[in-house]
Amino acid sequence: MSNAHVNDEPVEWPIDGVLDLHLFRPGEVKDLVPAYLEECRARGIRSVRIIHGKGTGALRATVHAILERMAEVDSFSLAPATAGGWGATVVKLKPHQ
């Protein structure tokens, strides 16, 4: 998956079920999250952790709003303390058909 840019060159990020949004600009999140989740589903990854950080909660709210609109999302919740607590969201995806 090609995402963030360093010196205007695309950088490849692994599709491994963990998406750290600290590496991206806020304006990229609305397109990035659905694209990443769809790629995970296509690869059979049905549990994804999205790291949005604790901060003010604005990015978390954006991520949750995106997830609520996605039919491919089975469920989501804040991560357990051992996986980032309220600084991350765990997403369960429906199987790819």
Q: Total number of helical segments?
A: 2
Helical coverage, percent range: 25-40%
- In terms of DSSP E residues, the strand content is 25-35%
| Low-confidence region ranges | 2-6
Mean pLDDT: 90
Structural class: alpha+beta
Describe this structure in words.
The protein has one domain (2-93): Ribosomal Protein S8, Chain: A, domain 1 (2-Layer Sandwich). Helix 1 packs across helix 2 (58-69). The chain is globular. Helices cover 27% and strands 30% of the residues. Mean pLDDT is 90; it is low at 2-6. It has two helices and six strands; from the N terminus they run E-E-E-H-E-H-E-E. By secondary structure, it is α+β, with helices and mostly antiparallel strands. It has helices at 29-42, 58-69; strands spanning 2-6, 9-12, 18-20, 47-51, 73-78, 88-93. The two termini are 21 Å apart. The strands form two sheets. A four-stranded mixed β-sheet has the order 3-4-6-5, with helices on one face. The chain has a two-stranded antiparallel sheet with strand order 1-2. Helix 1 (29-42) links the parallel strand 3 and strand 4 (47-51).
